[in-house]
Amino acid sequence: MVERITPLLWLLFSAGGTVAALLFPVHLFLTGLAFPLGWIEAPGYEFLHRLLAHPVTRLYLFVLISLPLFHWAHRFRYTLYDGLQLKHLTTLIAVLCYGAALVGTAMTAHLLWTIR
Amino acid sequence: MASTVALTVARYRPEKESEPTWETYEIPFRKDWVVLDALNHIKDRLDGSLSFRWSCRMGVCGSCGMKVNGTPKLTCATFLSDYLPGPIRVEPLDYFPVVRDLVVDITDFVRKLKQVKPWIIREEEKPLSEGEYLQTPDQLDTYKQFSMCINCMLCYSACPIYGLEPGFIGPAAIALAQRYNMDSRDQGAAERLDILSEHDGIWQCTFVGECTKVCPKHVDPAGAIQQYKLSAATHWVKSLLLPWGTR
Amino acid sequence: MSADPHYTLYHPRWYRRSVSVWWWLQNRSYTRFVLRELTSVFVAFFAVVYLWQIRALSHGPEAYGQFLARLKTPLFLTVDAVAFLFVLYHTVTWFNLTPKAMVVRLRGKRVPDWVVVGSNYAAWLVVSGAVAFILLRG
Questions:
Q1: Parallel, antiparallel, or unpaired: how do β-strands B98-100 and B71-74 relate?
Q2: Does any CB of chain C come closer than 8 Å to the CB of residue B229?
Q3: Residue B120 clears pLDDT 70, i.e. is over it
Q4: pLDDT of residue C136
Q5: Which range in A46-60, B188-202, B212-226 is most confidently predicted, on average pLDDT?
Q6: Taking 90 as the threshold, does the pLDDT of residue B42 lie above it?
Protein backbone atom coordinates (compact mmCIF):
# COMPACT_ATOMS: atom_id res chain seq x y z
CA MET A 1 0.00 0.00 0.00
CA VAL A 2 2.88 2.28 0.87
CA GLU A 3 4.29 1.50 -2.56
CA ARG A 4 1.31 2.97 -4.36
CA ILE A 5 1.91 6.38 -2.81
CA THR A 6 5.70 6.32 -3.16
CA PRO A 7 5.70 9.26 -5.63
CA LEU A 8 3.78 11.35 -3.09
CA LEU A 9 6.16 10.34 -0.29
CA TRP A 10 9.11 11.29 -2.48
CA LEU A 11 7.56 14.70 -3.23
CA LEU A 12 7.03 15.28 0.50
CA PHE A 13 10.62 14.22 1.11
CA SER A 14 11.86 16.69 -1.50
CA ALA A 15 9.70 19.54 -0.25
CA GLY A 16 10.71 18.83 3.35
CA GLY A 17 14.36 18.68 2.40
CA THR A 18 14.14 22.03 0.67
CA VAL A 19 12.36 23.65 3.64
CA ALA A 20 14.94 22.20 6.02
CA ALA A 21 17.86 23.25 3.81
CA LEU A 22 16.64 26.82 3.43
CA LEU A 23 15.20 27.57 6.88
CA PHE A 24 16.59 25.23 9.51
CA PRO A 25 20.13 26.62 9.68
CA VAL A 26 18.99 30.11 10.69
CA HIS A 27 16.25 28.87 13.05
CA LEU A 28 18.51 26.33 14.71
CA PHE A 29 21.33 28.82 15.03
CA LEU A 30 19.10 31.40 16.70
CA THR A 31 16.91 29.17 18.88
CA GLY A 32 19.50 26.52 19.74
CA LEU A 33 22.70 28.52 20.07
CA ALA A 34 22.54 32.31 19.80
CA PHE A 35 19.58 32.93 22.15
CA PRO A 36 20.44 30.41 24.93
CA LEU A 37 24.11 31.45 24.89
CA GLY A 38 23.16 35.12 25.02
CA TRP A 39 25.00 36.07 21.83
CA ILE A 40 21.84 37.79 20.61
CA GLU A 41 18.99 38.93 22.82
CA ALA A 42 16.12 36.50 22.62
CA PRO A 43 12.67 37.81 21.68
CA GLY A 44 10.33 38.03 24.65
CA TYR A 45 7.24 35.96 25.34
CA GLU A 46 4.87 38.78 24.47
CA PHE A 47 6.49 39.44 21.11
CA LEU A 48 6.42 35.78 20.10
CA HIS A 49 2.84 35.44 21.25
CA ARG A 50 1.88 38.39 19.08
CA LEU A 51 3.68 36.87 16.11
CA LEU A 52 1.80 33.64 16.62
CA ALA A 53 -1.50 35.45 16.40
CA HIS A 54 -1.02 36.03 12.67
CA PRO A 55 -2.46 33.22 10.54
CA VAL A 56 0.52 33.61 8.19
CA THR A 57 2.88 32.78 11.05
CA ARG A 58 0.84 29.70 11.90
CA LEU A 59 0.89 28.53 8.30
CA TYR A 60 4.63 29.15 8.11
CA LEU A 61 5.24 27.17 11.31
CA PHE A 62 3.05 24.33 10.10
CA VAL A 63 5.08 24.01 6.91
CA LEU A 64 8.33 24.49 8.82
CA ILE A 65 7.62 21.55 11.11
CA SER A 66 5.51 19.07 9.16
CA LEU A 67 7.37 18.91 5.85
CA PRO A 68 10.82 18.25 7.39
CA LEU A 69 9.23 15.52 9.51
CA PHE A 70 8.15 13.77 6.33
CA HIS A 71 11.60 14.38 4.89
CA TRP A 72 13.09 12.56 7.90
CA ALA A 73 10.53 9.74 7.72
CA HIS A 74 11.28 8.89 4.09
CA ARG A 75 15.04 9.21 4.36
CA PHE A 76 15.35 7.40 7.70
CA ARG A 77 13.17 4.57 6.47
CA TYR A 78 15.57 3.89 3.58
CA THR A 79 18.61 4.32 5.84
CA LEU A 80 17.34 1.64 8.21
CA TYR A 81 16.33 -0.60 5.33
CA ASP A 82 19.61 -0.31 3.40
CA GLY A 83 22.10 0.64 6.08
CA LEU A 84 21.13 -1.94 8.67
CA GLN A 85 19.67 -4.41 6.17
CA LEU A 86 16.43 -4.76 8.10
CA LYS A 87 14.50 -6.04 5.12
CA HIS A 88 12.24 -8.35 7.05
CA LEU A 89 10.94 -5.38 9.03
CA THR A 90 10.21 -3.24 6.00
CA THR A 91 6.49 -2.74 6.67
CA LEU A 92 7.03 -2.07 10.36
CA ILE A 93 9.72 0.51 9.62
CA ALA A 94 7.54 2.27 7.07
CA VAL A 95 4.59 2.38 9.46
CA LEU A 96 6.72 3.68 12.34
CA CYS A 97 8.44 6.36 10.28
CA TYR A 98 5.49 7.76 8.37
CA GLY A 99 3.28 7.23 11.40
CA ALA A 100 5.58 9.33 13.55
CA ALA A 101 5.59 12.06 10.91
CA LEU A 102 1.80 11.99 10.75
CA VAL A 103 1.54 12.21 14.54
CA GLY A 104 3.93 15.16 14.59
CA THR A 105 2.00 16.87 11.83
CA ALA A 106 -1.31 16.30 13.61
CA MET A 107 0.06 17.67 16.88
CA THR A 108 1.43 20.73 15.12
CA ALA A 109 -1.85 21.35 13.33
CA HIS A 110 -3.82 20.99 16.54
CA LEU A 111 -1.54 23.35 18.47
CA LEU A 112 -1.50 25.99 15.78
CA TRP A 113 -5.25 25.83 15.35
CA THR A 114 -6.12 26.12 19.03
CA ILE A 115 -3.48 28.49 20.34
CA ARG A 116 -4.87 31.72 21.79
CA MET B 1 61.55 4.45 -12.44
CA ALA B 2 60.46 1.01 -11.33
CA SER B 3 61.21 -1.82 -13.70
CA THR B 4 58.54 -4.19 -12.43
CA VAL B 5 55.27 -3.84 -10.57
CA ALA B 6 53.26 -6.48 -8.71
CA LEU B 7 49.70 -7.31 -9.66
CA THR B 8 47.64 -9.17 -7.06
CA VAL B 9 44.87 -10.83 -9.02
CA ALA B 10 41.77 -12.59 -7.68
CA ARG B 11 41.58 -16.16 -8.94
CA TYR B 12 38.58 -18.45 -8.75
CA ARG B 13 38.64 -21.92 -10.26
CA PRO B 14 35.36 -23.61 -9.35
CA GLU B 15 36.72 -27.04 -10.29
CA LYS B 16 39.47 -26.69 -7.68
CA GLU B 17 38.28 -24.31 -4.97
CA SER B 18 35.08 -23.13 -3.33
CA GLU B 19 36.28 -19.56 -2.68
CA PRO B 20 38.40 -17.05 -4.53
CA THR B 21 42.12 -16.84 -3.79
CA TRP B 22 44.80 -14.26 -4.56
CA GLU B 23 47.83 -14.72 -6.78
CA THR B 24 50.58 -12.17 -7.23
CA TYR B 25 52.49 -11.70 -10.46
CA GLU B 26 55.55 -9.50 -11.14
CA ILE B 27 55.12 -7.79 -14.46
CA PRO B 28 57.44 -5.44 -16.31
CA PHE B 29 56.47 -1.83 -15.79
CA ARG B 30 56.01 0.28 -18.90
CA LYS B 31 54.73 3.79 -18.44
CA ASP B 32 52.25 3.48 -21.30
CA TRP B 33 50.80 0.19 -20.13
CA VAL B 34 47.30 -0.14 -18.76
CA VAL B 35 46.04 -2.84 -16.40
CA LEU B 36 44.67 -4.75 -19.40
CA ASP B 37 48.17 -4.87 -20.91
CA ALA B 38 49.43 -6.29 -17.62
CA LEU B 39 46.69 -8.94 -17.57
CA ASN B 40 47.47 -9.90 -21.14
CA HIS B 41 51.15 -10.14 -20.26
CA ILE B 42 50.26 -12.50 -17.43
CA LYS B 43 48.14 -14.63 -19.74
CA ASP B 44 50.74 -14.69 -22.52
CA ARG B 45 53.91 -15.21 -20.50
CA LEU B 46 53.22 -16.12 -16.88
CA ASP B 47 49.93 -17.97 -16.37
CA GLY B 48 47.83 -18.95 -19.36
CA SER B 49 44.97 -20.06 -17.13
CA LEU B 50 43.93 -16.52 -16.16
CA SER B 51 40.43 -15.72 -17.52
CA PHE B 52 39.14 -12.23 -18.17
CA ARG B 53 37.01 -10.36 -20.70
CA TRP B 54 38.24 -7.67 -23.04
CA SER B 55 37.67 -6.57 -26.60
CA CYS B 56 38.23 -3.13 -28.06
CA ARG B 57 40.97 -2.06 -25.59
CA MET B 58 39.99 1.56 -26.19
CA GLY B 59 37.07 2.25 -23.85
CA VAL B 60 34.06 1.84 -26.15
CA CYS B 61 32.96 -1.79 -25.82
CA GLY B 62 32.46 -2.03 -22.07
CA SER B 63 33.87 -5.56 -21.78
CA CYS B 64 36.90 -5.08 -19.52
CA GLY B 65 35.25 -3.71 -16.36
CA MET B 66 36.98 -4.89 -13.16
CA LYS B 67 37.81 -3.54 -9.72
CA VAL B 68 41.29 -2.02 -9.53
CA ASN B 69 42.35 -1.29 -5.93
CA GLY B 70 38.73 -1.46 -4.90
CA THR B 71 37.29 0.92 -7.51
CA PRO B 72 35.36 -0.27 -10.58
CA LYS B 73 37.31 0.72 -13.66
CA LEU B 74 37.77 -0.13 -17.33
CA THR B 75 41.11 -1.93 -17.26
CA CYS B 76 41.90 -0.69 -20.75
CA ALA B 77 41.73 2.88 -19.46
CA THR B 78 43.57 2.45 -16.17
CA PHE B 79 47.27 3.22 -16.31
CA LEU B 80 49.74 1.23 -14.22
CA SER B 81 51.73 4.41 -13.61
CA ASP B 82 48.85 5.83 -11.56
CA TYR B 83 49.14 2.97 -9.08
CA LEU B 84 52.87 2.91 -8.39
CA PRO B 85 54.62 1.55 -6.44
CA GLY B 86 51.96 -1.17 -6.25
CA PRO B 87 50.98 -3.90 -5.62
CA ILE B 88 47.85 -3.35 -7.69
CA ARG B 89 44.80 -5.37 -6.67
CA VAL B 90 42.60 -6.60 -9.52
CA GLU B 91 39.26 -8.24 -8.74
CA PRO B 92 36.05 -9.01 -10.61
CA LEU B 93 33.18 -6.49 -10.47
CA ASP B 94 31.13 -6.49 -7.28
CA TYR B 95 27.54 -7.69 -6.97
CA PHE B 96 27.65 -10.01 -9.97
CA PRO B 97 28.25 -13.77 -9.50
CA VAL B 98 31.82 -14.73 -10.36
CA VAL B 99 32.00 -17.42 -13.04
CA ARG B 100 35.79 -17.79 -13.07
CA ASP B 101 38.75 -15.59 -12.11
CA LEU B 102 37.81 -12.09 -13.29
CA VAL B 103 34.77 -13.08 -15.34
CA VAL B 104 31.31 -12.30 -13.94
CA ASP B 105 27.88 -13.32 -15.14
CA ILE B 106 25.99 -10.34 -16.50
CA THR B 107 22.67 -12.00 -17.33
CA ASP B 108 20.86 -10.00 -14.65
CA PHE B 109 21.87 -6.70 -16.19
CA VAL B 110 20.94 -7.79 -19.72
CA ARG B 111 17.53 -8.93 -18.52
CA LYS B 112 16.88 -5.63 -16.76
CA LEU B 113 18.04 -3.67 -19.78
CA LYS B 114 15.50 -5.47 -21.96
CA GLN B 115 12.78 -4.73 -19.41
CA VAL B 116 13.06 -0.97 -19.93
CA LYS B 117 12.58 -1.34 -23.69
CA PRO B 118 15.67 0.56 -24.85
CA TRP B 119 14.44 1.28 -28.37
CA ILE B 120 12.28 3.91 -30.06
CA ILE B 121 8.63 3.09 -29.41
CA ARG B 122 6.12 4.62 -31.80
CA GLU B 123 2.37 4.37 -31.75
CA GLU B 124 2.58 4.25 -35.52
CA GLU B 125 5.69 3.96 -37.62
CA LYS B 126 6.18 6.80 -40.05
CA PRO B 127 6.13 5.38 -43.58
CA LEU B 128 9.32 5.75 -45.59
CA SER B 129 7.58 8.02 -48.09
CA GLU B 130 7.16 10.67 -45.39
CA GLY B 131 10.91 10.95 -44.97
CA GLU B 132 13.13 11.09 -41.89
CA TYR B 133 12.36 12.10 -38.32
CA LEU B 134 13.77 15.60 -37.91
CA GLN B 135 15.49 16.55 -34.68
CA THR B 136 17.07 19.86 -33.72
CA PRO B 137 20.46 20.01 -31.97
CA ASP B 138 18.67 21.21 -28.80
CA GLN B 139 16.38 18.18 -28.89
CA LEU B 140 19.42 15.94 -29.30
CA ASP B 141 21.06 17.69 -26.38
CA THR B 142 18.32 16.61 -23.96
CA TYR B 143 19.26 12.94 -24.19
CA LYS B 144 22.69 12.78 -25.79
CA GLN B 145 24.58 12.38 -22.53
CA PHE B 146 22.54 9.31 -21.58
CA SER B 147 23.14 7.73 -24.98
CA MET B 148 26.88 7.49 -24.27
CA CYS B 149 26.40 4.39 -22.10
CA ILE B 150 28.58 1.45 -23.18
CA ASN B 151 26.90 -1.08 -20.87
CA CYS B 152 30.12 -1.67 -18.96
CA MET B 153 28.25 -2.18 -15.64
CA LEU B 154 30.78 -0.26 -13.54
CA CYS B 155 27.80 1.68 -12.18
CA TYR B 156 26.11 -1.53 -10.97
CA SER B 157 29.31 -2.51 -9.24
CA ALA B 158 29.48 0.87 -7.53
CA CYS B 159 25.83 1.02 -6.46
CA PRO B 160 25.39 -0.23 -2.87
CA ILE B 161 21.64 -0.47 -3.40
CA TYR B 162 22.19 -2.98 -6.20
CA GLY B 163 24.38 -4.95 -3.85
CA LEU B 164 21.80 -4.90 -1.05
CA GLU B 165 18.74 -5.27 -3.24
CA PRO B 166 19.54 -7.52 -6.22
CA GLY B 167 16.11 -6.86 -7.72
CA PHE B 168 16.91 -3.15 -8.17
CA ILE B 169 16.73 -2.34 -11.84
CA GLY B 170 19.96 -0.34 -11.63
CA PRO B 171 21.57 2.88 -12.86
CA ALA B 172 22.42 2.02 -16.47
CA ALA B 173 18.97 0.59 -17.23
CA ILE B 174 17.23 3.69 -15.87
CA ALA B 175 19.64 6.04 -17.66
CA LEU B 176 18.98 4.22 -20.92
CA ALA B 177 15.23 4.33 -20.33
CA GLN B 178 15.56 8.07 -19.80
CA ARG B 179 17.65 8.32 -23.01
CA TYR B 180 14.66 7.03 -24.92
CA ASN B 181 12.05 8.91 -22.89
CA MET B 182 13.77 12.20 -23.70
CA ASP B 183 14.21 11.38 -27.38
CA SER B 184 11.77 13.49 -29.38
CA ARG B 185 11.09 10.58 -31.75
CA ASP B 186 9.96 8.27 -28.92
CA GLN B 187 6.38 7.82 -27.74
CA GLY B 188 6.92 5.06 -25.20
CA ALA B 189 7.37 7.02 -21.96
CA ALA B 190 4.13 5.65 -20.49
CA GLU B 191 5.11 2.04 -21.18
CA ARG B 192 8.46 2.48 -19.49
CA LEU B 193 6.87 4.25 -16.54
CA ASP B 194 4.90 1.13 -15.68
CA ILE B 195 8.08 -0.90 -15.29
CA LEU B 196 10.18 1.78 -13.65
CA SER B 197 7.62 2.85 -11.06
CA GLU B 198 7.46 -0.64 -9.58
CA HIS B 199 8.99 -1.44 -6.23
CA ASP B 200 12.34 -2.43 -7.75
CA GLY B 201 12.37 0.54 -10.08
CA ILE B 202 13.53 4.09 -9.57
CA TRP B 203 12.21 4.43 -6.03
CA GLN B 204 14.85 2.10 -4.60
CA CYS B 205 17.52 4.63 -5.52
CA THR B 206 18.66 6.85 -2.64
CA PHE B 207 20.98 9.03 -4.72
CA VAL B 208 24.25 7.71 -3.35
CA GLY B 209 25.84 9.04 -6.54
CA GLU B 210 28.64 6.46 -6.82
CA CYS B 211 27.37 5.35 -10.21
CA THR B 212 28.04 8.76 -11.71
CA LYS B 213 31.48 8.87 -10.11
CA VAL B 214 32.69 5.65 -11.70
CA CYS B 215 31.06 6.03 -15.12
CA PRO B 216 33.85 6.14 -17.73
CA LYS B 217 31.64 7.86 -20.33
CA HIS B 218 30.23 10.59 -18.04
CA VAL B 219 26.66 9.46 -18.54
CA ASP B 220 25.59 10.68 -15.06
CA PRO B 221 23.07 7.91 -14.36
CA ALA B 222 22.38 9.38 -10.90
CA GLY B 223 21.18 12.58 -12.55
CA ALA B 224 19.05 10.60 -15.00
CA ILE B 225 17.39 8.74 -12.13
CA GLN B 226 16.61 11.89 -10.11
CA GLN B 227 15.20 13.60 -13.20
CA TYR B 228 13.10 10.56 -13.86
CA LYS B 229 11.85 10.52 -10.26
CA LEU B 230 10.68 14.10 -10.66
CA SER B 231 8.88 13.42 -13.94
CA ALA B 232 7.34 10.21 -12.59
CA ALA B 233 6.13 12.01 -9.46
CA THR B 234 4.72 14.90 -11.51
CA HIS B 235 2.98 12.43 -13.78
CA TRP B 236 1.52 10.64 -10.73
CA VAL B 237 0.14 13.87 -9.32
CA LYS B 238 -1.32 14.85 -12.69
CA SER B 239 -2.98 11.46 -13.12
CA LEU B 240 -4.46 11.83 -9.65
CA LEU B 241 -5.82 15.31 -10.22
CA LEU B 242 -6.77 15.01 -13.87
CA PRO B 243 -7.40 11.32 -14.56
CA TRP B 244 -8.75 12.01 -18.01
CA GLY B 245 -5.88 14.26 -19.08
CA THR B 246 -2.90 11.91 -18.94
CA ARG B 247 -1.83 9.16 -21.36
CA MET C 1 17.67 -18.21 -11.64
CA SER C 2 15.41 -18.24 -14.66
CA ALA C 3 18.17 -16.69 -16.78
CA ASP C 4 20.32 -19.87 -16.72
CA PRO C 5 22.14 -20.74 -19.89
CA HIS C 6 20.40 -23.61 -21.58
CA TYR C 7 23.17 -26.21 -21.58
CA THR C 8 23.02 -28.83 -18.90
CA LEU C 9 26.30 -30.60 -19.61
CA TYR C 10 28.37 -28.64 -17.10
CA HIS C 11 27.36 -25.51 -15.26
CA PRO C 12 30.23 -24.23 -13.05
CA ARG C 13 29.51 -23.24 -9.48
CA TRP C 14 29.35 -19.46 -9.48
CA TYR C 15 30.73 -17.58 -6.50
CA ARG C 16 28.35 -15.07 -4.97
CA ARG C 17 29.75 -12.56 -2.50
CA SER C 18 27.42 -11.35 0.22
CA VAL C 19 27.28 -7.71 1.27
CA SER C 20 28.49 -7.05 4.81
CA VAL C 21 26.23 -5.07 7.13
CA TRP C 22 29.20 -2.68 7.47
CA TRP C 23 29.27 -1.97 3.75
CA TRP C 24 28.98 1.73 4.43
CA LEU C 25 32.30 1.82 6.31
CA GLN C 26 34.31 0.23 3.53
CA ASN C 27 34.50 3.28 1.30
CA ARG C 28 34.85 7.02 2.05
CA SER C 29 32.06 7.91 -0.40
CA TYR C 30 29.67 5.44 1.18
CA THR C 31 30.42 6.78 4.68
CA ARG C 32 29.82 10.36 3.56
CA PHE C 33 26.55 9.21 1.99
CA VAL C 34 25.35 7.62 5.25
CA LEU C 35 26.33 10.76 7.20
CA ARG C 36 24.29 12.78 4.73
CA GLU C 37 21.32 10.49 5.27
CA LEU C 38 21.70 10.71 9.03
CA THR C 39 21.31 14.51 8.86
CA SER C 40 17.60 13.75 8.59
CA VAL C 41 17.64 12.59 12.22
CA PHE C 42 18.85 16.00 13.33
CA VAL C 43 16.33 17.68 11.06
CA ALA C 44 13.58 15.72 12.80
CA PHE C 45 15.12 16.54 16.19
CA PHE C 46 14.89 20.24 15.53
CA ALA C 47 11.37 20.00 14.12
CA VAL C 48 10.37 18.39 17.43
CA VAL C 49 12.17 21.10 19.43
CA TYR C 50 10.25 23.75 17.53
CA LEU C 51 6.99 21.90 18.08
CA TRP C 52 7.84 21.80 21.77
CA GLN C 53 8.54 25.54 21.71
CA ILE C 54 5.10 26.26 20.24
CA ARG C 55 3.52 24.05 22.85
CA ALA C 56 5.39 25.92 25.59
CA LEU C 57 4.29 29.23 24.10
CA SER C 58 0.68 28.10 24.12
CA HIS C 59 0.84 27.16 27.82
CA GLY C 60 1.85 30.58 29.07
CA PRO C 61 4.93 32.52 30.17
CA GLU C 62 6.02 30.05 32.89
CA ALA C 63 5.98 27.11 30.54
CA TYR C 64 7.91 29.15 28.00
CA GLY C 65 10.41 30.14 30.67
CA GLN C 66 10.94 26.48 31.50
CA PHE C 67 11.47 25.72 27.84
CA LEU C 68 14.08 28.45 27.53
CA ALA C 69 15.84 27.23 30.69
CA ARG C 70 15.94 23.71 29.30
CA LEU C 71 17.59 24.94 26.14
CA LYS C 72 20.38 26.53 28.16
CA THR C 73 21.47 23.27 29.77
CA PRO C 74 24.85 21.91 28.58
CA LEU C 75 23.18 18.77 27.22
CA PHE C 76 20.90 20.70 24.93
CA LEU C 77 23.58 23.16 23.92
CA THR C 78 25.88 20.30 22.88
CA VAL C 79 23.17 18.46 20.98
CA ASP C 80 22.08 21.71 19.33
CA ALA C 81 25.63 22.45 18.25
CA VAL C 82 26.01 18.99 16.74
CA ALA C 83 22.58 19.27 15.14
CA PHE C 84 23.52 22.62 13.66
CA LEU C 85 26.58 21.10 11.97
CA PHE C 86 24.56 18.23 10.58
CA VAL C 87 21.82 20.57 9.35
CA LEU C 88 24.47 22.69 7.60
CA TYR C 89 25.80 19.52 5.99
CA HIS C 90 22.26 18.77 4.83
CA THR C 91 21.92 22.25 3.34
CA VAL C 92 25.22 22.08 1.48
CA THR C 93 24.66 18.59 0.09
CA TRP C 94 21.04 19.36 -0.79
CA PHE C 95 21.90 22.50 -2.75
CA ASN C 96 24.78 20.80 -4.55
CA LEU C 97 22.55 17.95 -5.66
CA THR C 98 19.55 20.05 -6.76
CA PRO C 99 20.78 20.70 -10.32
CA LYS C 100 20.97 16.95 -10.87
CA ALA C 101 17.30 16.46 -10.15
CA MET C 102 15.93 19.62 -11.63
CA VAL C 103 17.22 20.38 -15.06
CA VAL C 104 16.13 23.87 -15.99
CA ARG C 105 16.02 24.65 -19.68
CA LEU C 106 15.86 28.20 -20.91
CA ARG C 107 15.17 28.60 -24.62
CA GLY C 108 16.38 25.08 -25.35
CA LYS C 109 19.71 25.30 -23.54
CA ARG C 110 20.34 23.71 -20.19
CA VAL C 111 21.04 26.22 -17.42
CA PRO C 112 24.55 25.46 -16.07
CA ASP C 113 24.75 23.70 -12.70
CA TRP C 114 26.54 26.54 -10.94
CA VAL C 115 23.65 28.90 -11.71
CA VAL C 116 21.15 26.55 -10.07
CA VAL C 117 23.41 25.95 -7.07
CA GLY C 118 24.18 29.65 -6.81
CA SER C 119 20.53 30.65 -6.85
CA ASN C 120 19.85 28.15 -4.07
CA TYR C 121 22.51 29.73 -1.90
CA ALA C 122 21.24 33.21 -2.78
CA ALA C 123 17.71 32.20 -1.80
CA TRP C 124 19.10 30.74 1.41
CA LEU C 125 20.77 34.01 2.34
CA VAL C 126 17.68 36.07 1.54
CA VAL C 127 15.32 33.80 3.45
CA SER C 128 17.65 33.48 6.45
CA GLY C 129 18.00 37.24 6.55
CA ALA C 130 14.23 37.68 6.45
CA VAL C 131 13.68 35.20 9.30
CA ALA C 132 16.38 36.80 11.42
CA PHE C 133 14.95 40.25 10.76
CA ILE C 134 11.45 39.21 11.82
CA LEU C 135 12.61 37.37 14.94
CA LEU C 136 14.98 40.05 16.13
CA ARG C 137 12.62 42.97 15.86
CA GLY C 138 11.03 42.40 19.30
A1: unpaired
A2: yes
A3: yes
A4: 85
A5: B212-226
A6: yes
pTM of this structure: 0.90
What is the structure's pLDDT at B24? Answer: 96
B146: closest CA among B222, B208, B79, B74? B222
- Residue B198's pLDDT band, with cuts at 50, 70 and 90, is confident
Domain residue ranges in chain C? 37-135
Burial state string for C55-80 with b = 16 or more CB within 10 A and e = fewer than 16: bbbbeeeeebeebbeebeeeebeebb
Q: Given this model, what pLDDT does residue A42 score?
A: 86
For residue B12, the model assigns a pLDDT of 93
- Across the interface, do B232 and A78 touch by the CB < 8 Å criterion? no
Reported as a single tens digit per residue, the pLDDT across B145-154 is 999 999 999 9
Q: Please give the CATH architecture assigned to the domain spanning C37-135.
A: Up-down Bundle (1.20)
Nearest-angstrom CA–CA distance, A44 and C91? 29
Cβ-Cβ contacts under 8 Å for C11 (sequence gap 6 or more): C4, C5
Chain B hits for A85, CB-CB cut-off 8 Å, are 164
User: How distant is the alpha carbon of residue B136 from its chain centre?
Assistant: 28
Residue A53 sits at the chain C interface (C-beta within 8 Å): no
C99 vs A74: CA distance, rounded Å? 21
Instruction: Report residue C122 CA to chain centroid gap.
Output: 19
Single out the residue of B140, B234, B154, B216 nearest to residue B184, CA to CA: B140
Residues 164-193 in B contacting A (C-alpha not used; CB under 8 Å): 164-165
The tens digit of pLDDT for each residue in C70-124 reads 999 999 999 999 999 999 999 999 999 988 888 887 776 778 888 889 999 999 9
Q: Where are the alpha helices (DSSP H) in chain A?
A: 6-28, 45-53, 55-78, 90-114
Q: Please compute the mean of the pLDDT values over residues B190-218 and round it to a whole number.
A: 92
| Check whether domain B107-241 has CATH 3.55.50.30, yes or no | no
Superfamily of domain B4-104: Beta-grasp domain (3.10.20.30)
Interface test with A, best of C23, C32, C33, C54 (most A CBs within 10 A): C54
Closest CB to A28 among C58, C83, C95 = C83
Asked if residues C96 and C86 have their Cβ atoms less than 8 Å apart, the reply is no
C81 touches chain B (CB under 8 A): no
Q: Is B199 on the interface with A (CB under 8 A)?
A: yes
